[in-house]
Each structure stands twice: as structure tokens, then as C-alpha cells.
Queue: 2 jobs
Job 1
Amino acid sequence: MLVHLKPYLSQNLLGRFLYHSKNCQVPCTLAWKPPGLLSFGETLYFSGVRELHSQMIFRHQGFSISQASTQTVEMEENNMMTEEETVQLTTTPTSYESAMDALSSLITRQKRGDPSKIAGTYSKLDRMSMYTQILGLEKHLAGLKIIHVAGTKGKGSTCAFCEAIMRECGFRTGLFTSPHLIDVRERFRINGFDITEDKFLLYFWDCWNQLKKNVTDDLPMPPLFQFLTVLAFKIFVEEKVDVAIIEVGLGGTNDSTNVIKDPVVCGIASLGMDHMESLGHTLGEIATHKAGILKPQVPAFSVSQLSEAMDVLRERANKLMVPLEVVEPLDHEKINGIKLSLAGDHQYTNAALAVSLCKSWLQTTGNLEKLFQQDNQIDGLPEPFLKGLSTARLSGRAQVVYDCSSSSNLSMTNGETSGDLIFYLDGAHSPESMEACGRWFSSVIKDVKDQSFPHSCSEPGTGKPILENGFRNNGNQPADKISKQILLFNCMDVRDPQVLLQKLESTCAPSGTHFSKAIFVPSISTYSKVTSGASVIPFDSPAKDLTWQFKLQRTWERIIHGKASDTDFPEKTLKNEIPEGFPHSKFLNEDVSHCNPAEGYFACSSVVSSLPQTINWLRHCVKENPSLKLQVLVTGSLHLVGDVLKLIRR
Ligand SMILES: Nc1ncnc2c1ncn2[C@@H]1O[C@H](COP(=O)(O)OP(=O)(O)OP(=O)(O)O)[C@@H](O)[C@H]1O
Ligand SMILES: [Mg+2]
Ligand SMILES: [Mg+2]
């Protein structure tokens, strides 16, 4: 039998493929292929395929062709196919890595806020409208029942709470958030799960090819975030979600997601100082951008804000005749004492916003009464809301991960860890979020002090919370471990490290949290490549230029030692005195109190050129010292957090 496939993309297809059916793998031979690269619509023949199944997948070095058309499956079921027949399949394109390469080619080199990128015949939002038109999404977009969320901090968390609540209420959800930590598919969730690779590829190449065919000088391929936004719309329309929860990428007024004209409800999470290069240098200016997502007469909710921001929101809302309601952080009582699944006090604010957004959505769509009547709650929230609030998930935000590979007691079974190396991951990268992060870290390590080990490890990166409420105690943990707090930090060079590190230190210190050591290390991921979970991490490719990390270190040392400026802190102490590559063995045994930079020695910190080596080194430390427990706060950059998650998952 010959199977006739029409690949949608250029790919070099050579060699043998494995045909996976339900229960077996049948190798099949590539019988013929057109010379050179296959291009759109070209034909490829296989022989040796014995049976067809709707879930058939061909794989060859990551190249997969999947999903037989319904027609094919029906033909098979009706026994209509004969050996001689050539069957045409609707194929999905294929290698996930080639999709990542294609996506990476959309990353623009211009810096944010660079006015040159605004030039051109059409505005960004005009172009977004045109892209949605090309993809035939315009009229469907109007039918998506959208919850649209802007804000400086807490957008993603608010959206994650909304998703979980709406799902618990029985609706099929689509969730679009940014950024991603490990795999770009994290940005697109359908009914609570990251979109599958096969579906992603199907929709990705469909959008890609249609847009490619229609580009002109005035309408080039969209930059990355615009592409991801139209892709989200495509996915949610095709997947027929009941509710689409859309997080703004940056700002509001000019954000690609603002092509949404008639959301069901809008939310504005906490406002603060971030992305000033694009949004302006005052809170008022920033609020003006965020308020740009409000739409005439569409209900809107926000949380308490500084008056400079709130005034702007109210003014805009009045102009548009928008009912704007400000919600208070959730009250513990109202949620029956349940624990929010996203940790940190700030999440009570985000959760409250999500509750109001969901209620409003349910009301507008005529579902509220049904839901609230069914439930016999009095003042509190209905069961699905409570369930949603206690199960929402978002990786890399106040996430605790026990590192299994570091267990000093290898005899422990069932994936249990001695809990000696614990990563506290939070991608905070603005002053407000750094403060929230510091508060969370200080409180959570206190809680842990009162807990017992070991704890079961679970797979990071799956979104499952790693730290359950409470630990299991099997009674054999060593008593009185010495806990040390370590800071693992990096941030992008557009951030002000003085502000971020100062915020962290001044939030932690009053609660008695002092970092024994701070390690400054470059992230592995960069903004120049979109990665997948399967992307290879170069284990040993230390960064060459560590100028930025040395600057971070100097800033930290100045803060720790209360020095006001570089003149109080001679630069010569930085030269030659930094331990090369690896912190030396004494590193952990020294203490902040012994650290005197004036004497030319940086005992409280180190610059390390390789993240994988840093993690190995931390693992080594706890293995060598059974009495030591390391609590490592990883923060400053979501890239760093994603890289650490990826490394400790391996
Ligand atoms: N309400 C809040 N107030 C202050 N900080 C917060 C708040 N919510 C979240 N954060 C901090 O911001 C970080 C990012 O949270 P989240 O992903 O929910 O926000 P976001 O607005 O989507 O951020 P991003 O700019 O990374 O997209 C968290 O790790 C936490 O440190
Ligand atoms: Mg942001
Ligand atoms: Mg976000």
C-alpha cells in the first residue's frame, strides 16, 4: 500500500520512519521522495504501512507527521481501502525544533521602546487586525468570550486563577500567558493543559504558512509576540473554548492583545514601575497604557493601587462609561481557610481579582445565578471557586522544588529526598515583585524550619506544585541541620540591579533572613532563541563575558556592607580577588561577618560562569556535608528560573 502525504513545510526527509500504531511500531520505508527539500504541497510516498489509525505518528529524528484525516479513518473502518489505493492524508508538519527555529526568526533585534520600530504604513494594531483577517479569525475573535488582563505584576497569576475557577465551573478554557519558562507551549493552555506538541504544530504551521503567503513590504511577518498572539486566537477558536483568558504582553494600549475589541470583562492587576523605556517614567503614564485595554461599557476590575495610578484608571473608566470596581484582597474566612495554590501574600490580591473577573464573566454570560444557587454557600464562594483557587498553577512563581539528585541518603526510596537542597524559584524582576518575593521567601523558610523531612520529590516543570502543604516525616531525618540561605541571581541589563537587590535585601533583613552567599551567574537561555523542553542545554559552555555579573556582585557587596557608592568601594578589590569559575571549598564555611571587602576579599558572594556547574556544586556541597541544608532563592530573571527548572528536572 502507498500512503500519500502532503507535508506543509520545507523539510528534508530521508531515511526510514517508524509507524506507531496503538500497540506496535512498524518500520516503513520511504519509497520515493522528490529530490532536495520538500516544499509546501509536495508529495511524499511511503510504502510498508500495514494499517492506519487516527493517532498514527511517523517519527524520524524528531520529525513527526500525525493525524490521519477523519475521512481516512472512516475509509479504513468501512474497509474501503485496498492495497493499491493511494490514500491522501492531512498531515501536520513536524519537527518541533524547526518550528522553534521559525519562531526564533521572528525575534526582532530592536530594543523595546525604540521608536524606529513604530515606523511604517500601518500601526501595530492595524497590522494585528490584518493578520487576524488573513487567518480568517476576525469574526471568530468577536465570538471568543474573553477575560483580558493587564497590569505590572500579577497578570499571569490572576489569569491562572481565572482558568482554574472557570474550569471548575465546567467551562472549556483557553489560557494565553507570557512569558514561558521552559517550552513555548506553556503559553497556550487548553482546559488546563499545555497544548500538545502535535496540536501546536498543526496550528503553528497553518498560521505560519498563511501569513508567509500574504506578506508584503508593508505587512511583513509579525514579530514574535504578535505571532504568538494570533496563534493563541487561532488555537482557541479551533479548539472551541468557552472562555479565553488572555494576558497582556506589555502595557495595554499598544499591546498586540489589544486587537481584542469586545472582551466580556477586563482586569488590571497591580501597577508599578516596569518597562519604563516603553511605558513612561511615572506611574501615571504607566497606568495610562494599562488602562488602554478598557473598552466602552465593558465591566472592569482592579486592585488597590497608589492614587497616582488609580486616578488615571478611574478617569479612563469614566470616559468609557466603564463600571470599574476595585477589589480587596481575599479574606481568609471567605475562602473557608483553604490554602491558595500560588504562594505569597500578594496572591490574595491576584486571587480576589480573579474571583471578581470570573463572577462578572459568569454574570454577563448568564451563568452566575445557576452556579451560585446550586451551591449552598452563605457568604463565601461556591465550591468550584474554592477548588479553582486551591489548584491553579503557574511555574516559576513562588515555587519550591526539592532537588532529588542531591539527597545525601541514597538509600531513600520512592523518590524521597532528604530535603537538603531546596530551590525557591520566583521570577521577580521588578522592584514591587522583588519585595513580594523577599516577603514570600522569608516566610516560607520560616515555615520549613518547623517542618520535618523527607519530602517526596515530584517532577518540576509539569506545573504540579512541588511543595505540598506539610511534609512527611518518616522519623529518620538527621536532627538539627544547619540551614544556609543562598541567593542565585541574574537580571537583564535593562533592569536596575541596585533597585532590585536593595529591595530584596531590605525586605529580607528585617525578618532575619540573611543570605550566607550570593552567586551571580549568567542565564543560559537568551532572548534570541525560542526554546522547547527538549532543547539541549549546553552543560559546559561557561559564559565568557561576565562584566554584568561582576557589576551585580559589586552592587550586592555594596548593599551588604552599607557602602553608598563605588568610591567607598574601590574597584581594585574586584580584580583578581574573585574566585575563578567555581567558588572554592571554603566558600560556604565563611560567613557574612567575616567578609570585609576593604581587605580585598568577597566572601559573601561569587560570580560563576556556568549555571550547570553552579547547580552541581550546590549538590556536591550538600552531599559532602550531611548536616547542611541549603535553601537557594533563584530570582531576578524568569530565564534563570526556567534554566534552573530545566536543569534540576534532568
Ligand atoms: N500582586 C502582586 N504584587 C506584587 N508582586 C507580585 C504580585 N503578583 C505577582 N507578583 C510578583 O511578580 C512575579 C510574576 O508574577 P506573575 O507571573 O503573576 O505576574 P506577571 O504580571 O504575569 O509578570 P510578567 O511581567 O513576568 O509577565 C511573581 O513571581 C511575584 O514575585
Ligand atoms: Mg512584565
Ligand atoms: Mg506574565
Job 2
Amino acid sequence: MERIIITGGHRLSGTVRVEGAKNAVLPVLAAALLATEGVNVIKDVPNLSDVGTISEVLKSLDAKVENRLDVNEVIIDSTEQLSSEAQFEYVRKMRASILVMGPLLARNRFARIALPGGCAIGSRPIDQHLKGFEAMGAEITFGHGHVEANVPNGLKGAKIYLDFPSVGATENIMTAAALAQGTTIIENAAKEPEIVDVANFINEMGGKVVGAGTDTIRIEGVLKLYGTTHHIIPDRIETGTFMVAAAITGGDVIIENAVPEHNAALISKMEEMGVIITELDEGIRVTAEYPLKSVDLKTMPHPGFPTDMQSQMMALMLTSTGTGILTETVFENRFMHVEEFRRMNASVKIEGRSVVLSGPSDLQGAEVAATDLRAAAALILAGLAADGVTRVTELSHLDRGYVNFHGKLAALGADIVRVSPESLTEKKVQTV
Ligand SMILES: CC(=O)N[C@H]1[C@@H](OP(=O)(O)OP(=O)(O)OC[C@H]2O[C@@H](n3ccc(=O)[nH]c3=O)[C@H](O)[C@@H]2O)O[C@H](CO)[C@@H](O)[C@@H]1O
Ligand SMILES: C=C(OP(=O)(O)O)C(=O)O
């Protein structure tokens, strides 16, 4: 079984560069389907398995997709007629496949998508996406594991209040509304930087979206959208993960391409723990000396503390002094990694939607399995600080969201190797 093997206790130092954001590139590639004239060229695309999956989804819908991931570029030609069905094989692999629903409804007036269902972090319903489409005139039906949306007379602008500022629902409604008749207003919209990136992309294609990044987004439908060239924003979660990597090893790391404003909540919490964070022209510098002190934190929609950094912060809090309470409010079941941390001798107690950490835990290297994407990163981070050797398996989760994570850590001085089933010996990886 493929695994990453870490020998803990090495202080990280040097410079690392973060990639384009996974959570921006997936909705942007889905939104590219809106263009009916000219091709879209998307740049700064990270070479992730999720990008491969969304590309397959777009191809299955009859878009022409050229993946040039060696140069971080994807070219999409969606000018021909598209088919309307996103199949289970893709949606099962990656929930973000649901994001083609808005563009398909806008273009084809019909979409049939396999129901995404839940995943390791929660049940993840799509009721808010559907509520938006219904308000715009779509008729929604369910059957045979699929959801169908039908709008024979075309989508009409509407006022939509989201019960929760869902990232995916905001994106799906924005893309549907981009080609709808009239104006759509999304209230209680998600405000994540990735929402702003998608809105900018729609505008670059000739759309009319204002207010992205605030609670209220206004989309005036246009008749046609045109292919353009768009650069994806840097990944704030990869940035945060390297910030924790620096801090958990008492290191000194410069993270290039990081946007500090996108990580304000994380920066503020890490500073509260005693980490020194300096803004530089090229990104941010993170320096830490032991002991760090634990804090209380609660995940919230942006600009609150991101749920996608919860497990990595849990790793950091495990190595910090004092008691910290970490509360997850975005997903109802995002504590699967706690059991794996316990294998590493972590002192963690789950109390409802909170976790109580009494630190510092005397972390010991162990065999652990990633339970989701961010858990994979968090277990590796814990391994950097643990005594002895940690082996992390189920790496397909990691590959969804991190490019060459082990190689980047090795280049910063970590003792880390990735061993494939084919390798007979545990060879040192090449540093980047
Ligand atoms: C590809 C992508 O961008 N993924 C991110 C996106 O996921 P995603 O777009 O799925 O997250 P949402 O913001 O939609 O979900 C947040 C919460 O709202 C609930 N909900 C959502 C939609 C809905 O119709 N009904 C409903 O109840 C979900 O179950 C969850 O509990 O935002 C999450 C929250 O920041 C991040 O963790 C994910 O990394
Ligand atoms: C939960 C995540 O992604 P997704 O929504 O694609 O599952 C994540 O990026 O941490």
C-alpha cells in the first residue's frame, strides 16, 4: 500500500511556493461551460487529482478539454452543444461535480446529476442549490439516484435567501444566473475568496456580477458569455497547512504566493498561540519557538475560521501547552481524524461538536490512515512533530488537494519519503 513515512523532530526552514486554489479551480472549470464563443484558458491550475476528475466530467458533457498541467494550464472549448448528465462515477469521486448543474441549466435548460450523497465529513445535502434553481423557475425531480432540473422556458432572475452561506450553492446559483433572464440577488451568500474568483471569472467572460465577497451578490443575466484567460487565486488552505508545518516544527518558513488577507482568521489564531507571522511582498514568513500555547477556536463560514484548516490546527494544538477547545460548526462529522491522532498518543476528548485537547500530548509515531483530504495533511503534520516514525496511508485523499506535499516538506528539511507499492526499498524522495 502506498504510504508517506515521516521521521519526526526536524525543524523546517526555507521557502515554499503555494499552488492555485483547488476550491477555486473546480468551480471555475465548471463555470467555463458557460462560454459559447471562444475558448477559456485557465492558468495557475494545480496538478491535482480533483482537476483530473472535473476535466473528465467536462469531457463527459462533450466539452473539449486540453489539460496542460505540466504548465498549470487547462483549455476548455464548450462552444458546441453540451450533453446534460453528470454521471455517478464522477460525482461519487468528487462532490464538486455538482457544480456543473448551474451552467448546464443555463445552457441546456435541463440537467441530470447523480446525487452526491454524503462523505467522510458529513451528510452534505444540496437543498440550497436546488432551492435557488427552483426560485429561478426550475422544476426539480428525483429518481434512480439522480436529481433532474428542468426549466423549459429558461431561467428567470430571482431573489434567493440562502439558509446557510453555502459555498457550492452560491457558486451554482451565480453560474445559473449569469445567463438567466433578468437579475438574480443572492442573500446570505458565501463570502469566501473562491466565490470572488468565480465571480471575477464570470465577469471576464462578459458577465455582470457585483457584490461577490459580501453577503449580497447581484447577477444581471446576459445573453452570451465568451471564452477568456483567467488566473486562479493562490490556495489559502495549502498556505495554512504550510503555516502549521512551520509552527509545529518550531521552524522558520517563507510561504511564497500566499495572500495574508485570505487567511486573516488563521493568522490571528496562530499569533494568539505565540507564532510570529510577518507579511512580506512575496507572501508570508512564519516563525515559531516552543512552547506554543493552545487556544479555543470555532470553525465558521468565511471570514470565520475555515473548517478546511480544522484538522491541521488540531495537530498544532496537540503539541501546544494548556487546554484548547476546538468546535466544528460547518460540518457535523469532521472529527474522523481524532481516532487516528489517538493512535499517535494524542490526548483528545470529543464532546458533541467540540474536541477538548489537553496539551502538550507526547506524540508518538504510529501507523495511521487518512480519513479525508485535510486529515491526510494533518496526520503528516503531526508526524513531523512526533517521536519516531509515522506511516500515513490512504493517500488518494491527499492527492485531491496537495501537489507534491511530501516533496515540498522534504525541501524544507523534513525527513519524509513517499513509498509506492512498486518500490522495493524505501527510497528518499527527490526534493523540489
Ligand atoms: C470544492 C469546494 O469548494 N469545497 C469546499 C466547499 O464545500 P461545499 O460547497 O460543499 O460546502 P458548503 O459551504 O456548501 O457546505 C457547508 C455546510 O452547509 C451544508 N449545506 C450545504 C449546501 C446545501 O445545499 N445544504 C446544506 O445543508 C453542508 O452540509 C455543510 O454542513 O466549502 C466548504 C466549507 O467552507 C469547504 O469545506 C470545502 O472544501
Ligand atoms: C472538504 C474539502 O473539499 P471537498 O468539498 O472537495 O470535499 C476540502 O477541500 O477540505
